[in-house]
Amino acid sequence: MGMIEDRLSTLGIQLPPAPAPAANYVPAVRSGNLVVIAGQVCFGADGKLADRYKGKLGAGVSDEAGKEAARLCALNVIAQLKAITGDLDAVVRCVRLGGFINAAPDFTPLPVIMNGASDLMVEIFGDAGRHARSTVGVAVLPFDCAVEVEGMFEVR
Fold first, then answer.
1. CA-CA distance, 3 to 6, in Å (whole number)?
2. In contact, 88 and 5? CB cutoff 8 Å
3. Are 85 and 35 in contact (CB under 8 A)?
4. Which H or E run contains 151?
5. 0.85 cut: is pTM over it?
6. Which residues contact 89 (CB under 8 A, 6 or more apart)?
7. pLDDT tens across 49-66, in order?
8. Distance from the CA of 17 to the CA of which of 28, 48, 66, 79 falls in 20 to 30 A?
9. 151, 94 in Cβ contact below 8 A?
């Protein structure tokens, strides 16, 4: 096991299987030293979407559930990263995360929800997990998910 796998074990985190794409795209692309991960939704390790992660923040989905959903998305991002690199120790840095929050029009604490994903990157990769980020509220997401997260990583 590598250092990142050891850290995951220490944190009690088990990566889910990398989710299959839901349409005509690939879940991750490597170009040189960059890996771009397509948007990952908040499916659990069983590949299903729990009811608490369906719907809109500010209109039925609690902030706590939204942060958990963002964390699940980030776990799926990391699962895709491992699938394409074969070794999470190959990660040099999390360069960028993009977050999409299924939100009611007046819901403004979008960054707090996205911290569920950002905090996980730092927990797992340490300073190499600190990243640039954008977070936007959207009218709807696939499968009525509360959150979707995409990522870009530098790898060896």
1. 5
2. yes
3. yes
4. strand 147-155
5. yes
6. 2, 3, 4, 5
7. 999 999 999 999 999 999
8. 66
9. yes
